[in-house]
Every structure is written in structure tokens, then in C-alpha cells.
Design goal:
Helix 9 runs antiparallel to helix 10, helix 9 packs antiparallel against helix 11 and helix 16 packs across helix 17. The chain folds into 4 domains: 116 residues, no CATH class; 130 residues, no CATH class; 228 residues, no CATH class; 43 residues, no CATH class. The strands form 7 sheets. A 4-stranded antiparallel beta sheet has the order 14-15-11-16, with no helix packed on it. Helices cover 52% and strands 13% of the residues. The protein contains 24 helices and 18 strands. The N and C termini lie far apart (77 Å). It is globular and about 85 Å long. By secondary structure, it is α+β, with helices and mostly antiparallel strands.
């Protein structure tokens, strides 16, 4: 849990201003601090930016703080307002959020509060010389702290009386608590190459999940937040928004099945109809007209290798091949979602510059230019644009109602092609994943988690079940390109503290012996830096 406690002088000033009724100032300030704690906790759950981490800032909605922070006195003065106007504010605004930017304010806690984060992992509490049961007790926390954490996360849970009511509001995630505890220990004591900001966020998220799972008998409750676009999201920390290592730690040993090149595969389902609309009826036309897209779907490794050698051809490039492939994958995904194929930004009309997603992914201008001029990439972009225009045309003729939805329009009120395509894709993605779930259920396989186009099972499905699922996906959607890719995930194992401790003792012994050898002084005197021991031995 986190605690925000005001200094005594804050309460004294508020009490002096509002002496009656008795203890009203104390109750009002306590309520205000609890609301502030919740907002700061939510900021930590979302993860702070490197700038926020460096400056110790939190993303907080000041509007919520003012409205929910309570009132005091006969005039019902907002506590937040009184603290600010009388120079007793507990938070100082560094960057003001606006409704136009859809961003909360960046605030800093003032010197008038004491901030305690009990969820912050302490490496000293997990040293190898500490007993295993003490470390486990530290990681899982005490029942009182875990209960407080659950009340903060799920204040409405007490009003839900049946399992059906709980499942309507939450998805229950079964957590491998041993694997998760091992992950926290590893991240705290051995992950020396992990970025400090990412480590801090991951540790906070892991401690929250472990605390809830410890309190709720191995289950973590993910609060549902369905999107109008068709996907199921969750509020706060969830299996969807944590990093891959933390997700693996939460789930433990399992198998991940994801749709290969999902959005690009989805678009290829429209290829035949597109060609028919162009009066192209040749049976080989699809493979001829969409050769780059099909190469990406069917032979992605070879396709990416060819593009990678073209883009990163400079001998001075030091990044690894794997990292380069990840960048290219992000670039192709951005293009498939409508990113502009431009090598530089453009004016936003108000004196600023808006960058294409490609500029943010391929930051090196020379590499970005090589990417956009590569023949395979140019064909891929052309093919994607053709499918985008065709699908958008279908919407205009068959689903004109989508053009009027506010969430699918640009700020100027015009229909946004990219948003409409994302809307259609995400609805179809959800439908396809339901097909996967239903077909797997026929073989008594229930998923343990879903992350958009990926689904996780405790055990491997096997080739026959996988083939049957893929056939169902293709037949029920009319898209022959759907394909699942399987990947085995392993939970985090114990660090074997006895072995780690023995290795540390061994290194200490070696260091001690080395120091003694370097500092050794013999009993025989030296003449001009040469020991007289050899002369003594000759004389004898």
C-alpha cells in the first residue's frame, strides 16, 4: 500500500480555519488524503514516464481530486481549493493537463506530506543470506496490508453477492504466485540490465498482482472495460498491459497461441473481392497482385531478412539482427494500421510538427529512407493501400452508419479511414478469437488468459486440435489465410538461494586471498628490490 500523511501543521491550519464541528477538519483532511492516495496509486499502476520517474511526478486528474476530495465548512468549500488558496497544498502542479489533450496533470507532492510506498520492493530484504521463508513472507505481504490493497482496488466488491455478479464485472485470472514471487526476486536482485524506469514499474505491478492473488486464494481480478471498437480491455493492471516477462511470471508454465500477422491476414480476406471489383478474375491474380503481402504472411522470416539487409546495410550499424527485425515488424504493423509512408513529419497547422509512426519507429533518417524505397516495402505499401481503399469503400456503401460515429471521426468531424478500419478489424478479431475459444472448448481446453489476438492455454493443444481450430477460423470467416503460431512459455524458477550464497562466499574468499597475495611482505630483506632469500639458499 501507499500512504500519504500530511504534516501536523496542515491539520493545525485547517482546524484553525474550521474549528467546528469538532474534528471536522481532521476527517476532511483524511478523506482528501485517501482520494489523493488513490490517484497516485492509479498513476503508479499505469506506469510513469521516464521524465515522471526522474522528477518524481505523478499523473493525477486535479479535477477528480477537487471534486472527490471533499468539502468543509458551512459554505461547503472544497478542501482542495482551500489548501491551494492558503498555501497549504499537498500537490504542486508541474504540467497542467487539459481536456483537449486528454491527459491528466503532472503533479509533485510537496514538502507538507510524507509519502510511503509499501509496494516498492526492497532488494535488501531479498539477500541470499536471508532465510527463504522470510523472503517469501516479505514478498507475499501481511494479510492486513493485502486486505487494504484489495479494498483500494475493488471498493465495489463487497456489494457483489454472487459469482455471476462478480464475473459480469471482472475477469478472474489465475496467478502462479510462486513464479511471480521468483520474478520479483530476480528483478530486484539480478536484473542488472533492465532499465531502471521499467524495473520500477514492473516491480510495482508485480507486487500489486501478488498481493491481490495472495489475498484472493491465487486469483487476480481484472476489471472489465469493454471498448466500442470490439475489444475487451481492463482498468488498471492486467495481463494485457504488463511487459512480456511479467506476463510470463503471472501465468507460469503455459502455451501461447497468437494469430500470425493478424491485421494483415484480416485484410487479405478481402483480396479476392477486391480483384473482382477490378474485373480481375485470373485464379493466379491474388498471388500476383499481393505478392509482398503474401510473402509477409507466409514466409515472413525470409521476407524480413531481405528487407533487413537492405535497410541496415551500413557496416557501421551495431544493433543486433533480432532488434532490427523487431523494428521492421513494428514498421510493417504501423503501415498496416494506416501510418503515413513519409520519411519526415508535417506541419499540424498550429506551428507544430506531427511525426508519422514510421519516424518514431525508424529514427535514423537514412534507414527510414532505405525502408521506404525498398522494392518489397513499396509493393507492400501499395497493396495495403489498395485493400484499405476497398474496405473503406465497402463501409461507405454498406455501413454508412459507421461514418457518423463520433469515435470514428477526425477532430474536424470527417470520417477517419484509419479509425474505421481499426474498428472493423478489432470486432472481427474478437469474433475470430471466440471461434478459437469455442473450438478449443470442444476438446475440454479452457484458456487461462486472452490478450487481443493471443490466447493462452495451460497445456499444449496438439497438432490435431490446432489444425481443427484453424480450419474453423477459415471456414467461418471465409478467410483462408488465418494461422495460429504456438509458443511455449515457462514461469520463473527459484533462484536457488543456497547456491547463490555459496557463490558469493566463494567470490569473497577468492578476493580475500588475492588481496593477501598482493600485499604479502616476505621475512627476508631486499637489496635493490631483489630478495636475499635466493642468496641465502645458495650459501646453504
Amino acid at each position: 500500500m501507499i500512504r500519504i500523511d500530511p504534516k501536523p501543521q496542515v491539520l493545525a491550519a485547517l482546524t484553525a480555519a474550521f474549528p467546528k464541528p469538532s474534528r471536522s477538519a481532521e476527517r476532511a483532511l483524511a478523506k482528501y488524503c485517501r482520494v489523493l492516495e488513490g490517484l497516485v496509486f492509479a498513476s503508479l499502476n499505469r506506469g510513469r514516464t521516464p521524465e515522471q520517474q526522474k522528477l518524481n511526478l505523478f499523473g493525477v486528474s486535479l479535477e477528480l481530486l477537487a471534486n472527490k476530495g471533499g468539502r468543509i465548512g458551512k459554505d461547503k468549500t472544497r478542501v482542495h481549493q482551500w489548501l491551494r488558496e492558503n498555501n497549504w497544498e499537498l500537490v504542486k502542479t508541474v504540467v497542467q493537463g487539459t481536456s483537449q489533450s486528454r491527459k491528466v496533470s503532472d503533479v509533485k507532492l510537496t514538502d507538507l506530506v510524507t509519502f510511503t510506498n509499501l509496494l516498492e520492493a526492497q532488494p535488501d530484504a531479498m539477500k541470499p543470506e536471508i532465510a527463504a521463508n522470510e523472503i517469501d513472507a516479505y514478498l507475499t505481504g501481511d494479510s492486513e496490508a493485502n486486505a487494504e490493497l484489495c479494498v483500494l482496488l475493488y471498493p465495489d466488491l463487497a456489494d457483489l453477492n454472487t459469482e455471476e455478479q462478480i464475473c459480469e464485472r471482472f475477469d478472474l485470472l489465475r496467478v502462479n504466485t510462486k513464479s511471480l514471487a521468483n520474478y520479483i526476486e530476480w528483478l530486484s536482485t539480478q536484473a542488472t540490465k533492465v532499465n531502471a524506469n521499467r524495473k520500477s514499474t514492473a516491480l510495482h505491478q508485480a507486487r500489486v498482482v501478488l498481493g491481490v492473488a495472495t489475498e484472493y486464494d491465487g486469483c487476480y481480478l481484472q476489471r472489465k472495460k469493454p471498448s466500442q471498437f470490439g475489444r475487451m480491455y481492463y482498468e488498471g493492471i492486467s495481463v494485457q498491459n504488463v511487459n512480456r516477462d511479467l506476463r510470463r511470471a503471472i501465468l507460469g508454465d503455459c502455451w501461447e497461441y497468437d494469430i500470425r500477422s493478424s491485421v494483415i491476414t484480416w485484410k487479405m480476406g478481402f483480396a479476392v473481392d477486391y480483384l473482382r471489383s477490378q474485373q480481375v478474375l485470373d485464379p493466379e491474380a491474388v498471388r500476383r497482385e499481393f505478392r509482398s503481402t503474401l510473402a509477409y504472411i507466409e514466409d515472413r522470416d525470409d521476407f524480413m531478412t531481405a528487407v533487413r539487409r537492405s535497410v541496415f546495410s551500413d557496416p557501421e550499424v551495431t544493433t543486433t539482427a533480432e532488434f532490427q527485425k523487431q523494428l521492421l515488424k513494428q514498421a510493417f504493423t504501423a503501415i498496416s494500421f494506416g501510418a503515413r509512408a513519409r520519411s519526415c513529419g508535417w506541419s499540424d497547422g498550429s506551428g507544430g510538427i506531427t511525426n508519422s509512426a514510421l519516424v518514431d519507429i525508424l529514427r535514423n533518417a537514412d534507414q527510414r529512407s532505405k525502408f521506404l524505397t525498398d522494392p518489397c516495402v513499396r509493393d507492400f505499401i501499395r497493396e495495403q493501400n489498395s485493400l484499405d481503399q476497398y474496405i473503406f469503400g465497402l463501409v461507405k456503401s454498406k455501413r454508412p452508419d459507421l461514418l457518423k460515429l463520433p469515435d470514428l471521426q477526425t477532430p474536424s468531424g470527417r470520417p477517419s479511414k484509419n479509425r474505421i478500419l481499426a474498428y472493423l478489424y478489432q470486432h472481427d478479431e474478437t469474433m475470430v478469437m471466440e471461434i478459437v475459444t469455442e473450438t478449443a472448448a470442444k476438446h475440454e481446453r479452457k484458456p487461462i488468459a486472452r490478450v487481443h489476438d493471443a490466447i493462452f492455454f495451460r497445456r499444449r493443444l496438439g497438432p490435431d486440435v490446432k489444425w481443427e481450430i484453424e480450419q474453423e477460423m477459415r471456414e467461418k470467416t471465409g478467410n483462408p489465410y488465418w494461422r495460429l503460431t504456438a509458443k511455449q512459455l515457462e514461469g520463473f524458477r527459484s533462484l536457488n538461494r543456497d547456491q547463490v550464497l555459496e557463490e558469493q562466499k566463494h567470490r569473497t574468499r577468492i578476493a580475500t586471498e588475492t588481496e593477501r597475495a598482493l600485499n604479502y611482505r616476505g621475512v627476508f630483506p631486499t637489496i635493490d628490490g631483489v630478495s636475499t632469500e635466493s642468496e641465502w639458499m645458495l650459501d646453504s
